[in-house]
Amino acid sequence: MSKSISDIEQEIVEEFSLFDDWMDKYQYIIEMGQSLPTIPDTHKTEDNIVHGCQSQVWLLADDQNGQIHYQADSDAVITKGLIALLIRVLSNHPAEDILKTDMGFVDRIGIRDHLSPNRSNGLNAMIKQMKIYALAYQAKAQQNK
Amino acid sequence: MDIQAITDRVPFNVEEVRKDFPALHQEVYGKPLVYFDNAATSQKPIQVIERLENYYKHHNSNVHRGVHFLSQTATDEYEGARKTIQQFINAKHEHEVIYTRGTTEGINLVAQSFGRKFFQKGDEIIISHLEHHSNIVPWQLIAEEREAVLKIIPINEKGEMSVEELEGLITDRTRIIATLHVSNSLGTINPVEDIIALAHKHDIPVLLDGAQAVPHMQVDVQALDCDFYVFSGHKMFGPTGIGILYGKEKWLEEMPPYMGGGDMIKVVKLDKTTFNDLPHKFEAGTPHISGGIGLEEAVKYIWKVGYENISRHEHELLIYGTEVLSGIEGLRIVGTADQKASVISFLVGDIHPYDLGTILDRLGIAIRTGHHCTQPIMDRFEIPGTMRASFAFYNTKEEIDRLAEAIQKGRKMFE
Question: E strands along B80-132, which residues?
Answer without folding.
Answer: 97-100, 124-128
